[in-house]
Structure formats: structure tokens, C-alpha cells
Amino acid sequence: MHCHPSMKTASAQLCLLAYLTLTVGLTLGLGPSKNTGFTFLLPAGSTECFYQSTAMNDSMEVEYQVIAGSGLDVGFALISPSGHRLVSDFRRSDGIHMVDPTADGDYRLCFDNSFSKLSEKMVFFEVVINSQSSAGGGQDEWLDIVTSESMVDYKMEDIRVRGMDSVHLYLEKSRQVQAVLRAFEARDRYLLEDNLWRVSFWSCVNLLVMLTVAGVQIYTLRRLFDDTKRVRT
Length: 233
Fold this sequence. Notes:
The chain is of the alpha+beta class. Helix content is 46%, strand content 28%. The chain is elongated, with a radius of gyration of 29 Å.
């Protein structure tokens, strides 16, 4: 199947935009949350699925947004490890879904663009998992070591809960907001470039029409004066 040159140009622009906005983030720091963000191109007439592993009694938040492509809409389905369809969105530009608590296994995140036969879509999605099982593993060991080796009057547990965990939570929220803002910026840039092309095209068409009308008027006036001179003579 051969593509029209304009379609190839649009595809190249989308690929460049995807390269500029590609974001893959894994945060496994002091806190129990695990974040994954990804930007990908969804071809026309196809469906792409991603898998996210979770443990029992965790919580998972899924957020997606269509950044570029005709219509700025895709279908989305979230399927549990047992095969039950938990979420089913049809032709949405964005969405946020929460699963709490989660089951032990792999959740399937599917993005559907089968209804669009010509336009590919650029999609950004982020998965945030708040793990309850691994919340205290490494931190408790670090706390025991510090407590046994240092003689301080303050309780390390209070310092961790009130200080380090709150700072880590704020940093995670800031990172999530920045990722969403980058997705919004990429979509707005795509819309501006697309609108600029349309405005430029129709401006050229209007200018051509005006020049054509002006030329016809000048030609008509000249013919009118020539006919008047001939009648007088």
C-alpha cells in the first residue's frame, strides 16, 4: 500500500513529535509508589496493548491522553488478570481510571485506533502504582541500621513519616504534573502547527482569488474603453 506524500509528511511530523516528547519514567526511590510514563504512535486501524504487573491489595492509577492525530480520540480498555474488562472507553481524547485494590497478576492496557483507517495517533499514558507490600522493606532496614548506630533524641520514624515521606510524595506529584503538562504542550503545539498550515493555505487561496478578480476587472475595463473608442471613431 502506498501513501500519499502529504500523509508521509504528517507521519514524519508525528514521529518527530513522538521523539521530542518520549517519556519513560520509573521511580523506585524511598517511597512505595512506582510510576511509568510512555508516549507512542498508534498506527491507523490497529490496536496496541501494554501489560503492567501488580501485587495483591495495591492501588493503580492509569491516565492517558491523545497528543496528536486526526480527531484526537482513541478507544481504551483496561482488562484485569482474570480477563474481566474493568474499563471501556470509546473515542475519548483523555481519561483517568483507578483500580483499588488490585489483584496479583498482569493488567492489560489496550489502545484502539481500528475505527480510523487513515490517521495514526500519538498517545501518552502514565501508570502510577502505590505498593503496600513493599512500603517498609528497605526503609525499615535503613531505619534499624541508623537507629542502632546513632544516638539521637529524635525518633527516626517520626522524621521519616513527617519529613522524608512527605517530601517524596510532593516530588512524585510534581513529576506527574510535569509529565501531564508536557503532554498538553505537545498536543497544543501539534494543533497550532496544523492550524497554521490551514490558515496559510486558505490565505494563499484567497489571495489568488483576489488577484484573479482584479485581473478580470482590469481586463473588462480595458475592453470597455476600447469598445467606446471604436464606436466614436
